[in-house]
# Entry
Amino acid sequence: MRTIKRFSKTILGQKLIGFLFYLITSLICKSIKWQYLVENEKENILKNDEEYIFCCWHNRLFLGPHLLPRNRIINALQSSHSDGMITSIAFQYLGMKVILGSSQKGGMQAFRKMVKSIQLGESVAITPDGPKGPKETVKEGIIKLAQITQKPIIPLVWSTKKYKTFNSWDNFILPYPFSKGVYSFGKPIYVKKKINEEEIEKARKNLENEIKRLTQLVIKKTN
# Structure
């Protein structure tokens, strides 16, 4: 176990494990019989090239990137920790760009890169409760990003009928192949340019509640 952990911290190990992670997640995603919950909102996203701030809970990161639209450049925010680097390799195989940083390390630099990428006409993807939680608690960074860029936040949620839940801080979800799956994009959520700290907190809580509501909808649909 220690040998594998040491190997995962090397560049070669991260590239190999990242590719295997991409391959496994791709195969599982393709094996699932997917149903889209609200088709018209999906079409609205696919028919335009507007810059979006996509977000998905950290515990649904296994398949979240595979369900993002492919008609735009998406920059994924990832931790520079070894686990994050492995995930970053998988993202790159999906054709996504990667911005390294987190609230613990390189957060401000990563935030500026996200703003810059949106200004260049690209989108970003964030786990709003990552990388260490608390579970399903939105941090205010995504709200400030939407405030500064004036681009909408698009929640992404998914669920499968059969899955395994890990005993991790976020109760990470591993979907089983050939299961029934449901996913959905939420309606665009905008944040006003000029708001105070109280309004930022309100927007943060509203986003958190909306992602939770959508998550419960897709879970109910798979039961």
About this structure: The radius of gyration is 17 Å. The longest helix spans residues 197-222. The longest strand covers residues 153-160.
